[in-house]
Specification:
single chain, about 325 residues, alpha+beta, Ubiquitin-like (UB roll), Rossmann fold, 9-stranded mixed sheet, rod-shaped
Amino acid sequence: MSRTQQDLTRADRVRMRRTTQGSTRTQQTRQHVRRYAAEVTPVTVRGGLGTPVIQRTRTKPRRKISISLDQRGTEMQLPALPIIHPGWRILSAFLVIGFSLLIYLAYNTPALLVTAPEINGLKYIPAGDILRSVDLVGRPIFTIDPEQVTEKLAKDFPDLVDTSIEVQLPASLVINTTETEPAVVWQLEYRSIWSDETGKVIPQRGEPGDILTVEVEGILPMVETEKKAGAEQSVNQDQEETASNEPQYVAPSLLNSALTLGKQAPEGAILTYNIQDGFGWYDPNGWYVYFGTQMNNLDQKLVVYQAIAAELEKEGLQPGTISVEHVHAPFYRTEH
């Protein structure tokens, strides 16, 4: 037999009221959830159980893009795009890739490569020798140092002077130089030496043409470098071949004497030189005449020589050698 409400205690009435309120609140919550679920767009998950909660919290926010349609109040939503915040590492990577690409293009673009340098001022030296020495063909124009090329040419070709390099973009290179002309050919026993008007020994290239030739008997006095122009020394053929790469010079006094005497030599005469008798020539009449190494009084020596030659011819004598090195004590020998 159930108890009536009058028989219930105060505690029993409180428990009944709480139970009734809890059931009502639960029912209201269920109704609210059903109403919200009906309003929200259903979400379909394909493949798996969806994105884990931890991964969803790590996903970067996305930018929603909506496009309005013609009808009022309607729009079309495009797929959301992630919002990217590039850092310094990404920017540095792009810079490295970009500069690397520019460097590669600069070294491999045909428009920037030297193909056929222009060389002006050559007479004896082949242009191919110049190009092989400096190795310019196929190099990027911006890697060429004009001063370095000039120094290389001066070292490999001592007979080039006043060399200048003109570099023009995109790939134009002009070499302007002057080739030293030989002034005297010194004919030694086994080989010949070319020297310019300053006495500098230059390489032999091609045919020297119609220039003064001196036949040297024995050794030829030379100086090793221009710095030692005041200290002459005798250098024979063997010493000359083993000398350093420094330019050599014929002794200035000998060069000046050879050039001075060469202007007075008869046509067809061959100039000679030896340390004992100095300079002279082989006369077409069949004898040697020597004037020594000093030509400051060459005019007097020529007058004395002509007088001696005329007197010998008058007497019918055939000399082998006539020496007027000492103008006040000339002599002749009948044997060579």
